[in-house]
Amino acid sequence: MGSAKNTGTAARKARIEEMRRAEQSRERRTRIVKIAASAVVVAGLVVGGVAVVHAQSGKKDSSASDSKNSASGHFVAGSDGVNTWKGTLGRTHVTSTVNYPMHPPVGGNHNPVWLNCNGDVYAKSVKDENAVHALEHGAVWVTYNKKASAADVKALATKVKSTPYSLMSPYDSQKDPIMLSAWGHQRTVKSASDPAVNSFFEKFVQGSQTPEPGAACTGGLSQ
């Protein structure tokens, strides 16, 4: 049993490392394309700027409308302690604030820029809209409030820093001291040593729930 589990863990790590290398290669190609296209874009903006302004006048802010239809449904508790969202989770990119029906959010419309999630630990609260985009990329988000012990926060930070496709930040308004979130899934854990922490990471870091597997967890927002 132990040998099989170790083999599975090694294979999972190898797959994540392969995704990271592919991501870096994709970022290099994207930078080249952006540089080549920038002159054309600027020229187009100059020529079409006035027309765009007139076209936009009188229209409602679509991002505000999208944010209201971000998610609907409810959590269903599993026997393993993981709550699964049953309903819809929007994936529209919006620039407005989104009113999520759950906190921390596990999906829904979100900011076009993802929060860096390559083992990033944030000392301050982050914006939900950017963190949700990271979940869309297959990240696990560890959050905690002021009731969490300093020892647990330190231990969880150590785990996150060593795990690609994960991030951590304080979340004062959440109902429990420590919570783990992935796209469409969430659970509470008692402490950093709770076996459920490793189980959640094993299942949901780049797990089958990921809407965009292998998408970037770097090159986004770094608070």
UniProtKB/TrEMBL annotation:
Low complexity bias locations: 64-73
InterPro entries xrefs: DUF3105 (IPR021454)
Segments of this protein annotated with the region Disordered: 1-28, 57-77
Biased composition (Basic and acidic residues): 14-27
Pfam families assigned to the protein according to its UniProt record, in alphabetical order: DUF3105
The protein, known as: DUF3105 domain-containing protein
Organism of derivation: Streptomyces prunicolor
